[in-house]
Design a protein that fits this description.
25% of the residues lie in helices and 30% in strands. The protein is built from 6 helices and 22 strands. The longest helix is centred in the N-terminal third of the chain and has 30 residues. The radius of gyration is 26 Å and the shape is globular.
C-alpha cells in the first residue's frame, strides 16, 4: 500500500514538473512572437481568432498581452497560417544532419535616410558639448576645496528660504494640438538645438521626431508596459525612458541601442532627469522614492525616501544657457555673475522633486540630503522646474494653478 502511494506521488510530481516545463516553453514561445503595437491591428487579430476584441476594463496593453497569450498556445503551423513571424531557435530543425553548424542570423531593421542624418547631426554637436563640459570640469578641479565648500553652503542657505512669488491659473483652450498617435502621449522633450523631439507613449514605445519636417524618424520598443518618464542628456546624445514596468532604460541616439537598465524601483517610473555634470541622473517613481544613478559606474548611488506619495516631477538645476555649448555652468564666487571657464559652477548642485503628497522638496546634489521642503501647494503637485538663472522654482498642481517660489530677499 505504501509502495502504491509512493508511485502515485511520483506520477503526480512528474505531471506537475511536465506542466511547469510546458509553461516555460509557452512563455519562451510568446516572447518570440511579433505582436503588433497598434491597438486597431491588435483588435483585428483578436477578431481573426474569434476572440472578444475588448474585455471589461481592458486597456491597449492588456489587450496586446492577451493576444500574445492566445497566440502562444497555437502551433507553429497555425501561426504561419495567420501570418505571424516567429524566430526559430538554432538547432531545432528535425532531420537535419548539420543542425549543430547552424547559426542564428542577426536581424537589422533598415532605417530611413532622415534617421541617418539625425544621428550624424546629434553625434556632431553632442561630442562638441561633451568636450566643453569636460573642459569646464577640469578648470573647476583646480579651485580649492574650501572655496568650493563655502560656495555650496551659500547655495543651500539661499534655497532654505523660499516664498511664493506668483500664483496663477489657466482654464482656457489649448493654443494648438497635434495628433501624434492613437494612444495617450505621456511626455515630450526637445533636444538642445530644438531640431528633434522625443515622445513617450502608452503603446510601450518612444519616438523621435524631426521638428522641421514633422516626420517620425524612430519608433523604439523595449518596455513591457506603458512608457511615461523621459529625459534627454545635456550633451544630446542619450535618451532615458521610464516605464510602468518599473524599469528605466538609457538609449544612445547615435546608435539606437539600449545601453543600460535603471533597476530598483518596484512601481511605475514617472519622471527622469540628467544632471548637467553629464554622469548623474535621477528617477522618480510611484514607490515614493527617488533613485540617483552614476552613469560612469552604471549603478545606483543612493535611494531617497523622498515623499509620502508618488513622485510626479524631478529637475536638476541646469544653470545659465550658453547658445554654443548649452549650460554655461559657471558663476563668479563673489558676484554670482556667470563667467567661464575658471569660476565655480552652480549648475547641478541641487535637485527638486514634486509629489502627489502636495510638497516640493529641494535636495543637495553633494550628499543628497534634504535642504528644504516647500509645503502648502494645496493639492497634488503635477510637475516642477527651475529657472535657468536659479532665482525661481516653478510648480503646477491639481488645483489648476502654477506657483513661482523665490528666495525671501
Amino acid at each position: 500500500m505504501a509502495s502504491q502511494d509512493h508511485d502515485d506521488t511520483d506520477l503526480l510530481s512528474h505531471q506537475q514538473e511536465q506542466e511547469l516545463l510546458d509553461e516555460f516553453a509557452r512563455r519562451e514561445k510568446a516572447r518570440s512572437i511579433a505582436v503588433p503595437t497598434n491597438d486597431l491591428q491588435v483588435k483585428a487579430r483578436l477578431r481573426e481568432l474569434r476572440e472578444p476584441i475588448c474585455l471589461f476594463a481592458e486597456g491597449p496593453m492588456d489587450r496586446r498581452s492577451r493576444l500574445r497569450y492566445l497566440l502562444s498556445k497555437l502551433s507553429d503551423e497555425e501561426l504561419q497560417n495567420l501570418g505571424f513571424d516567429r524566430e526559430e531557435e538554432a538547432g531545432t530543425s528535425s532531420g537535419s544532419d548539420h543542425s549543430d553548424d547552424e547559426q542564428t542570423e542577426e536581424f537589422y531593421t533598415e532605417g530611413s535616410e532622415g534617421l541617418l542624418k539625425a544621428r550624424q547631426r546629434i553625434a556632431e554637436y553632442s561630442l562638441a558639448r561633451a568636450q566643453a563640459r569636460i573642459e569646464r570640469e577640469h578648470a573647476e578641479h583646480d579651485i580649492p576645496v574650501l572655496t568650493t565648500k563655502n560656495h555650496r553652503n551659500r547655495i543651500n542657505q539661499r534655497l532654505q528660504v523660499q516664498t511664493i512669488v506668483v500664483i496663477a491659473g489657466y482654464s482656457g483652450p489649448p493654443l494648438s494640438c497635434i495628433v501624434l498617435a492613437e494612444v495617450p502621449q505621456c511626455n515630450i522633450q526637445m533636444t538642445f538645438k530644438g531640431d528633434y523631439l522625443a515622445t513617450t507613449s502608452f503603446d510601450t514605445t518612444w519616438r523621435l521626431w524631426d521638428t522641421a519636417t514633422q516626420q517620425e524618424l524612430l519608433l523604439q520598443e523595449g518596455h513591457s508596459k506603458e512608457v511615461f518618464g523621459l529625459a534627454i542628456h545635456p550633451d544630446g546624445s542619450l535618451v532615458a525612458t521610464g516605464g510602468f514596468d518599473g524599469i528605466g532604460k538609457l538609449w544612445d541616439l547615435r546608435t539606437g541601442r539600449s545601453i543600460f537598465d535603471l533597476t530598483g524601483h518596484v512601481k511605475e517610473i514617472y519622471q527622469l532627469d540628467f544632471s548637467p555634470n553629464g554622469y548623474h541622473m535621477a528617477s522618480g517613481s510611484a514607490d515614493n522614492t527617488v533613485r540617483i544613478f552614476d552613469l560612469r559606474a552604471m549603478k545606483c548611488l543612493t535611494m531617497l525616501a523622498a515623499h509620502k506619495s508618488l513622485v510626479s516631477g524631478l529637475a536638476f538645476y541646469q544653470g545659465p544657457l550658453d547658445t554654443d555649448h548649452g549650460p554655461a555652468t559657471t558663476m563668479d564666487i563673489d558676484t554670482d555673475e556667470p563667467r567661464r571657464p575658471t569660476q565655480l559652477s552652480s549648475a547641478g548642485t541641487y535637485l527638486v522633486s514634486s509629489s502627489y503628497d502636495g510638497t516640493i522638496k529641494v535636495w543637495s546634489a553633494d550628499d543628497w540630503r534634504l535642504v528644504t521642503t516647500l509645503p502648502d501647494h494645496g493639492n497634488k503637485v503635477m510637475s516642477v522646474d527651475i529657472a535657468r538663472d536659479g532665482q525661481y522654482i516653478a510648480s503646477c498642481g491639481f488645483d489648476k494653478t502654477f506657483k513661482l517660489w523665490g528666495a525671501d530677499e
